């Protein structure tokens, strides 16, 4: 099937001096976990040598669902930034910044709110999904309904060529493209469009099972966090669900039907995978032994991240965040000067 023009697959590294710009971010709603790492951070690190990268912490977006208690947002912001840096994001290669320190985001969000039909927001799939899933919170607020517009402002204010996302998130960028298109229909600088429509940059985003077999998610409480020490990782994996056919130790199983097997496929070596397939299908190994092997593989990923994280200080992280925010501010101001001129505001 032909890939749509608005979507590009993550390419090999390029040495071109004219690097396309990309932008993405995360909400500081808790400690980052392996799903966040494999779905985003791992890919962002690789993008740094290929693109002009802007990565931010979306603290205003955290308020769309956690507005009633904001006491943890500031602390969580620092923790997420530490995870960014520990995972390998380099402030010398990427602009790392904080959303709420840039009022231009809010200004562009307001202008988008003036021109966006209400129906566009009500049809966003996650709008109704989250209202149904987060039943303990009142999400009947304008902030929650309008978060896709704030997201569009976050993206378009940096005029990126691409937004790196996994296949399951590609549709989320389409609203941003529609908003840019509508803005450009109403407002131009002469004949020039101010806000180019960004394209999707497809990045590998494997489905990572949590300890209960469902997709790893903070909402489900089934995560392995990037900061979990080895004993905690091993204990969490001991409780992880396995192939339901293996009721007894002597029952053969199938790694292709087992969440633990899915983790092995992502993190274990071919040699370990061969032992898993042979031992599980013949009942030659038990699930605890199999989980121990996957724990070994996970710690090969987590140990270096945790070592780098331990060397970070709050003061140093704040300094990096402030410098990145200053750099992002210069870019945001440039876009907003063009936007205000196009809208014909004084």
Describe this structure in words.
This protein is mainly alpha-helical and 346 residues long. The chain is 52% helix and 8% strand. It contains 14 helices and six strands. The strands form two sheets. Strands 1-6-5 form a three-stranded parallel sheet, sandwiched between helices. It has a three-stranded parallel sheet with strand order 2-3-4. It is elongated.
Features:
346 residues, mainly alpha, three-stranded parallel sheet, 14 helices, 6 strands, 52% helix, 8% strand
Summarize the structure.
The protein has about 350 residues and is mainly α.
Helix and strand pattern: EEHEHHEHHHHHEHEHHHHH
Widest sheet, order of strands: 1-6-5
| Helical content (DSSP H or I, runs of 4+) | 40-55%
Question: What's the gyration radius in Å?
Answer: 22 Å
Number of alpha- plus pi-helical segments:
14
Largest sheet: 3 strands, parallel
Are there runs of 5+ residues with pLDDT below 50, and where?
A: 12-16
What's the count of strands? 6
What are the SSEs and their pairings?
Blueprint (H helix, E strand, L loop, with lengths): L6 E3 L11 E6 L7 H14 L4 E6 L1 H8 L6 H15 L6 E5 L4 H13 L2 H5 L2 H9 L8 H4 L1 H10 L5 E4 L4 H17 L12 E4 L27 H9 L20 H9 L2 H12 L5 H24 L3 H30 L3
Parallel strand pairs: 1-6, 2-3, 3-4, 5-6
């Amino acid at each position: 099937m032909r890939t749509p023009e608005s979507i590009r697959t993550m390419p090999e590294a390029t040495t071109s001096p004219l690097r396309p710009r990309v932008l993405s971010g995360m909400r500081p709603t808790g400690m980052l976990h392996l799903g966040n790492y494999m779905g985003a951070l791992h890919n962002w690190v690789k993008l740094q040598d290929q693109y002009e990268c802007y990565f931010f912490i979306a603290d205003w977006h955290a308020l769309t669902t956690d507005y009633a208690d904001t006491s943890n947002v500031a602390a969580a912001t620092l923790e997420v930034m530490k995870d960014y840096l520990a995972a390998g994001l380099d402030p010398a290669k990427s602009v790392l910044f904080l959303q709420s320190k840039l009022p231009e985001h809010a200004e562009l969000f307001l202008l988008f709110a003036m021109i966006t039909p209400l129906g566009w927001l009500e049809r966003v799939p996650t709008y109704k999904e989250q209202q149904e899933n987060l039943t303990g919170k009142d999400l009947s607020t304008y902030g929650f309904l309008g978060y896709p517009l704030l997201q569009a402002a976050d993206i378009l204010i940096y005029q990126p060529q691409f937004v790196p996302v996994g296949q399951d998130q590609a549709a989320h960028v389409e609203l941003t493209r529609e908003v840019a298109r509508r803005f450009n229909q109403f407002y131009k600088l002469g004949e020039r469009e101010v806000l180019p429509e960004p394209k999707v940059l497809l990045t590998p985003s494997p489905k990572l099972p949590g300890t209960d077999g469902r997709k790893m998610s903070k909402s489900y409480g089934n995560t392995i966090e990037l900061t979990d020490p080895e004993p905690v990782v091993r204990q969490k994996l001991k409780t992880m669900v396995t192939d339901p056919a293996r009721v007894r130790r002597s029952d053969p199983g199938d790694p292709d039907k087992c969440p633990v097997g899915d983790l092995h496929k992502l993190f274990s070596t071919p040699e370990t995978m061969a032992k898993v397939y042979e031992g599980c299908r013949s009942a030659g190994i038990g699930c605890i032994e199999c989980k121990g092997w996957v724990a070994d593989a996970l710690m090969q990923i987590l140990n270096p991240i945790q070592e780098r994280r331990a060397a970070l200080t709050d003061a140093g992280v704040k300094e990096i965040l402030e410098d990145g925010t200053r750099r992002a501010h210069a870019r945001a101001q440039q876009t907003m000067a063009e936007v205000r001129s196009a809208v014909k505001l004084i």
